[in-house]
Sequence to fold (272 residues):
Amino acid sequence: MKRSWKLIIDNPRNGFKNMATDETLLTKIFAEDGTPIFRIYRWDKPTISLGRFQNPEDALFLDRCKMDNIPIVRRITGGAVILHLPEEITYSLVCSDADIDKNLSVKETYRAICRFLLNFYTKLGFQPKYAVENSDLGESLGLRTSLCFAGKEEYDITINGKKIGGNAQKRLKHTIFQHGSIPIKFDCDIIKNYVKNIPDDIKLKSTSLRELGVTKSIDELTSILKDSFLETINCSFREYVMSDSDKDFMNSVRKKKYESDIWSFRGENVEY
Fold:
């Protein structure tokens, strides 16, 4: 019998709500009954997210971000900066290790989950590969970069040798949280305005759906993403609407944590 997952599809939101909602899925909704969750969401304006352990002063031109009113949020996952645009689809999921395969290592679980993204890009007509499969390109993996899309880890997704999107995972004992970005548009010139130490060859390292010639609407892409997840994880969906209690919890997390400089700029934990 297929495992049933809760499905949440949100309209575009600001970055503080998006990150607070992800944390609510992990610490409240999943924790209450253990039903796995898959969420698809978007961003209402260009927003920068920092990796859990990044120093914003080292990674960003903060004066330019402030001047152009670019919000900055900090993720609960590691990795590097992402400039999220309204032209992006983002997903998150929460499940137990048994929902994937409890016998897999952390890295193997990450690889297994990301197979649904390989399926997604294959359905769009491409031949995606994990970065580790591009050994013939002689590119180094695991190098630290300020920008997520500028560096590759073993199981990042690539198309024609270029990285597309980025994914990050957090583990709490037997609970898995993962979220990731599917860029419809990727504007190197805009990114260079706000992110430090961008390599000169960034256009040769990263790509987006528009650059690859995909013209499908966001609704069409969302539908394909859902189908890809269902097929790969071999599960079923039931739509979930956040309760008033969920929303109250999320708003508390948003106000006390994600809108706080203590978390966003100093990276210190905040009680909510």
Remarks:
- The first strand starts at residue 3 and ends at 9.
